[in-house]
Amino acid sequence: MKKPSDSNNADYDIGDLLGLGSQSVRKNYYPALQERIDELEKERNRYKWLFENALHGIFQANLRGGFVAANPAMARICGYESSEALITGVIRLREQLFCSSGEFDAIRQELLDNGSLSARETRLRRADNTPVQVAITLLRRPDLGPEVVEAFVADITERHQAREKLRQLNADLERRVEERTEELQNANVVLRYQIEQRERVERELVVAVEAAKEANESKDKYLAAASHDLLQPLNAARLLVSALIDSDLPADENRLVQRVWRSLESAEDLLADLLDISKLDQKAMRPDIVNTDIGELMRGLAQEFEPVAENAELHFRVRLGTGYVSTDPRMLTRILRNLLSNAFRYTREGGVLFAARKRGPNLEIGVWDTGVGIEQEKLNDIFREFHQILPKGGGRQGVGLGLAIVERMARILACEIHVGSHHGKGSCFSILVPLARFTEATASSQNAEPPPIAPVSFDGLRVLVIDNEEPVQESMQALLERWGCVVTTAGSAVEAVAHCGGADIILADFHLDENLTGCQAVYAVRRHFGRDIPAAIITADRSDETRRLISTQYLSILNKPVKPNRLRALVSSLAASLNSESQ
Asked: Where do the PAC domain residues begin and end (predicted)?
């Protein structure tokens, strides 16, 4: 034991607790006791580490006051920067920690009664006065004080939000089920009513269809008889008018006779179309399939329309096919006659090409024109009865039955009708007819009229034509070859470079496929051949912007529709520039 004379400020150690003096302790140290003390210190440090680093909040508090101790997790849950800030900031749990004083009172009473409570869900107040949902477990510690408690707190905000969302979804689902059930019940009532109405309407429709069939058959029979009977006097009247035309009449009377002639012609065409439609609707027209000489058939039609072309001052070119096709010659003649009539009716400038070419096992007979063309959105309507391409007042009109007859007769012959058109540029109508025997046409038989003598300066002139429209390519090639040129056609610059062995001049359309221009095609060909080939742009675009663009490229320009004399002058100019460069 220490003597009374020992200093009062000296620290007591383990030897004092055991009643031993310092010297005795050094001599009689108990290793086991020291080891136990070290273990207790380690355990205390471990629990302190767990307390400081726990994920859940842990605190000790007095229910009548505030916090005694709290870990950092508890401070974070309550929105404080540190445990010390939480302990100093909350000095009354009832008013400052719990959102509801009544809830605090209920928890306190349960602790006093039972000594503990587990996972009680409640709301605590954060530092910014916003609530936070927690699950709290409390244990009363009467050994530390009458109302001292220790608690574990878990933040369950996400769980609470998920629960609320699920509750809302369930409520919405129940509401939607109720609404849908009501809708289905109402729909069933409406459906039953509609079924009853439909059954009644169907019964009425059966009666109406039968009556319509009878009326339609009567109409067709009457129309066929009336049309046939009216054609006879009209034909006689036309013969009389024809005699008057050949007479030596004064100018005014002759003009009136010409108008009567055209009126009678239109009336006769109308009645003939009505008669054909009537027969087609009654399915009274049956094909008589025979092997037909296509050359003779096309030659007869060409001779029939040559006067029409001369009167309209239009170019009419014919490329006859040779050989035989399997078809009804009367129906095929009517189809081609209607196509030619439309081509001349809707063509103001340029011309019409009537040609045949082999397409696999078929012969394609087509009519190309440089007429008004058809908008793409209207192509599906042109085969309907009484549909006209031109608006009223747009020139000589039909009644809109020609193409309807073409489509129905082609269907009877099991032939395909192909249509291609560009509004403002022209159209192409063609029919595919099965071949019986076909041989390539000779050069002398491909044109119905002999080609004119080409200027000597054009002989052997190599011309490259770039245009994305095949009918335009063929028309240009035919016209230029008549003048003695050697023509190569292409739909694009790539095709021109791939298939053209060389060119003296280039004629390119301005608007090509894939948003490319003729100017770009010209420069691509020039780069490929490595020389500045004379070139011109042919376009239907008359805008100032396009003209300025072409002019800045130092290229000649020619507007569509192309007239032969202007094209000849352009080719002569390009050929002259070629000759000047060679000199």
From this structure: 118-168
